[in-house]
């Protein structure tokens, strides 16, 4: 996996939705790999922070909103962008957590990202996400 880079930098050279989604996944997984203490502080330690609640701290809401803004375009027609973003993030979080725990083969990291992009953009799978009108975390 490549070093962590800011999302705009990671996705700037991407040509098309699939390449863009794969670049976003690489940026997220790269951050988890190259910033393990920060990643643990955000997602593994119980800091008492509320997630996806009314009292979620603004920086956490802002981070989700930035991801939502990035993914809303690729969610597809009739797909709730908030739920699409939530599922996208959750699957990347699972990949990051399992990789860091040594439960996934490191040599399959890039094919895993490519498969994640393919699955994320399959319209027949996306259609299973209902339009609820709500945005998770807000």
TrEMBL record:
Keyword DNA damage among record annotations: no
Domain HTH-type transcriptional regulator MT1864/Rv1816-like C-terminal: 21-118
Alphabetized InterPro entries for the sequence: MT1864/Rv1816-like_C, Tet_transcr_reg_TetR-rel_C_sf
Keywords assigned: Plasmid, Transcription, Transcription regulation
The protein's name in its UniProt record: Transcriptional regulator
Source species of the chain: Streptomyces incarnatus
